[in-house]
Amino acid sequence: MTLEPDTIPTTIQPCDRNVDLARQEAQRMVDLITTVEAEVSDEDRRWVAQTTYQNFANHINKGFLEYRKSVTETNDFALTDWYGEGSMLRDVLGREYIDMLGGFGLYSAGIRHPKIVAAVKAQLDRSPQYSQEMLDPLRAHLARVIAKLTPGDIQYGFFANSGTEAVEGAMKLAKLYTGRKGFISTLSGFHGKTLGSLSLIGKNVYREPLLPLLEGVRQVPFGDADAVEMVLKSAKMVGDGIAGVVVEPIQGEAGAVVPPNDYWPRLREICDKYDTLLIADEVQTGFGRTGKIFGVDHWDVTPDIMCFGKALGGGVVAMSGFFSTAKIWKCMEPNPFMHTTTTGGNPLACAAALANVTVMLDEDLPRQAAEKGEYIKSKFKVLQEKYPQILQEFRGKGLLLAMVFPTDEIGYKVASGLFSRKVLTAGTLTNARSIRIEPALTVSYEIIDEMLTRVADTFASIDI
């Protein structure tokens, strides 16, 4: 089956109830994933590639297929995720790619880091989930570890599964503590897509179809502390309470946008002045990504609440959390069931997170990110001088970096060119003016140099 864009089904295939077939389908994939990799047949590999495409069209979302380079840029079988290690990915048919996407910050320790995988496997043999009644030691211990890692007097926390859940929890905590309903966030900011966190997002494409969202949320330009103070001052004058200011230390989805150096210190001063909580969304910047353990560490600022996700689970198990001070957390104590989850902070996730912290510190991943980021930026400076009509800007901190292009069209040509040269990046058909370079913090200099060679080849191939 040729998987060109015009082969995307225009109608959903009927799917009647068939329990026997459901069991057969489940068993076939279980058998495949439990088969030794070298013994998986070529026929089975082709079956996976074909049915994955069909199943996305019929059971997930046909729209994904129109925007994925892994479908639109391949000539025969769509690129189908199957195997990864370190900074390399291999699809089910054996095609190998350099991973410069890093799962949007998920793979800070690399794909399948052996120490993290080993910890999860060991816990799996002991207990994969909680009893829901006994006290769970891994969750309690991980909370203590994070309390020791975070700046200032951050001490208490709650674990969940995704970054958006962490932001939702932080918003609830802020409202409960302050008794106010309003929030300030930033234009082009990204905090998740559940209804609460979506209210904070600074992009109309996600917000407008779902309005009205939470009341009392204002967006201001990122990096503009005066704008934050103006909103807080106005809100105070009219008695409109603001519970918190929610900001990414460095904007990730917007394309590795770094604020002015006085921005975070001023946010801290302004929030103190107006008795408003400062909430740092560290879902993408946390645990070494930007060259410090946390993004706010670049400016020596302690927020009131911090949100974590992505890399926290070591790229092995989904894991997130939000943490705050003992003073703020006190409001959660009268009814500790105000915010709960069945699977958040489960033993497998906590084992992964604890192992991830040891890897981060033992291998000094923040330092690696800082040094490799500077190395990559120095190389892109040369490329920008050579191809100024293609590369408009290269920015970011650590290994949260981005190429910025004059137009989406040029950006997509770069993203497409890199894909054809087997480099995975974050550019899509509709949003390619900024393409992130966000590899594992463990990525080798050899792989970085090979990526840079392929970027240079891609730039050279583009006609303006």
UniProtKB/TrEMBL annotation:
Its cofactor is pyridoxal 5'-phosphate. One of its GO terms (biological process) is putrescine catabolic process. It holds the Pfam family Aminotran_3. GO terms for molecular function: identical protein binding; putrescine--2-oxoglutarate transaminase activity; pyridoxal phosphate binding; taurine-pyruvate aminotransferase activity. Its EC number is 2.6.1.77. Keywords: Aminotransferase, Pyridoxal phosphate, Pyruvate, Transferase. PROSITE patterns: AA_TRANSFER_CLASS_3 (PS00600). It is an enzyme of class 2 (transferase). InterPro entries: Aminotrans_3 (IPR005814), Aminotrans_3_PPA_site (IPR049704), Class-III_PLP-dep_AT (IPR050103), PyrdxlP-dep_Trfase (IPR015424), PyrdxlP-dep_Trfase_major (IPR015421), PyrdxlP-dep_Trfase_small (IPR015422). The keyword Mitochondrion does not apply. It catalyses: taurine + pyruvate = sulfoacetaldehyde + L-alanine. It comes from the Bacteria. Belongs to the class-III pyridoxal-phosphate-dependent aminotransferase family. This is Taurine--pyruvate aminotransferase. The lineage of its organism: Bacteria, Pseudomonadati, Thermodesulfobacteriota, Desulfobulbia, Desulfobulbales.
